[in-house]
Amino acid sequence: MFKHFRQRLSVTTVVTAIAIFVMQSIVWAAPGNVLSKVRTSQTADTVRIVFDVTTLPEYLVTTLENPSRLVIDMPGIGSNTANQYVFNDATVDKLRLSTDESGKVRAVIDLKTEYTYKVFTLKNPNRLVVDIIKKYDRKLVEQVAPGITYTSWLKSSANGPILAHILDIDPKAGFTIKPAISNGVVQGLEPLLSMVERTHALAAVNGSYFGLDGSIIGLLKIDGQIASTSELPRTALGIMPDGKLLIDQVQYDGKVALPDGQTIPINAVNRERGENELIVYSGLYAPTTGCNNYGQEYVVVNDKVTAINPSNSPIPSDGVVLSAHGEAAKLMSSLKVGDTVKVQQTLGTEWDKTEHVLGAGPMLIKNNSVFLTTKIEEFGSDVAGGRAPRTALGLKADGHILAVVVDGRQDDSIGMTLLELALFMQELGAQDAMNLDGGGSSEMVVKGKIVNQPSDGHERRVGDALVIVSSDVAN
């Protein structure tokens, strides 16, 4: 799932020069090869060294420390060039060339500071190219609207470059953040750009985890209505009617009260029904439940059973469908049309007051301290393992909201571990912060444009998002 370094024949090899190891990249040689020219160029971020050769050479790359050097050996090649090139650069000192008795050309690049590098070959004409990528820390800040800033932060780290995208939102400036689901229903997928356009959002990031059909994996509440639930108490963002935001672990509890006083636990809301389960389907799910005929379904409007079906019931816009199988179905088997049943759901006293909730996790920061709940919330390696593209949401002491996307699995941004993400959110000033869905789903849209580089190479369709809209649009 995670890509730290790559070795390929005749293509880019990326490593970090300060790492304590030697990486070798080999491309097979052709006889009668000559190094005819060395060309160099410099930018604020990169020093490029180009070796013009007759044919693509065999090459061996070695990184050395104390002093820091990058060594490129090219066996079986003659040289007609100068022996030394001096750079006026804060990172690269000089390039030294030598040829031994066997005809091997050695290029030694002396470095002054930490760096990363890429070595690759190009054809027509044949070239061996070395890019020295400097240690850098560059921020570009743009005011998206009064009260909202977008920052693109390209920074170096001990393991490689990091490209982070940061939205800082002041709710007092007339903006609010809220969840949006794909195509307006739980079941289904939609690109983030499309969600932004449909909701008239100024900006957005991807939200919680989702299944292949778009069903939300986690707690979700929209406009006071619970749209999805989590089996475990996991971290969620809560949005109060007055715009106040909460981040904490939340537990869903639901039951159905029957006319005889019995109660049946609700297993979940708006997901596929399993064996011996009672699932509640609302109009946010889909037009119908899609369930098979091995259970029994009860359509409930205004606490009254209005229809009983064997399967795939239409879901009323002003009610729910209770879909039961196994033991749950047996307990409900005496229900008749006209009977009273009550669906009782709670997230706890405080969280029941929320207007919107979006769950994901794990938690990253709590009360200004790093607080990773990966094991407590039982996240597996698909979320917790290694360095990856990440999306996070944080709350600052001044009330500002931080929405952050970190690119990963790319040469110019290696991504972050959850601990690195927590420390980064703390660095940005978050007093509470949570992880959202990551990997290929990590995406940020600002003013109708994707500003990050999704690791799939293109925009992924997702199940839901967090959108930033003006308070007038939200209401």
TrEMBL record:
Domain Phosphodiester glycosidase, first and last residues per copy: 298-468
Top-rank taxon: Bacteria
UniProt domain AMIN: residue ranges: 38-132
Alphabetized PANTHER family for the sequence: N-ACETYLGLUCOSAMINE-1-PHOSPHODIESTER ALPHA-N-ACETYLGLUCOSAMINIDASE
InterPro entries per UniProt: AMIN_dom, NAGPA
Coiled-coil residue spans: none
UniProt protein name: AMIN domain-containing protein
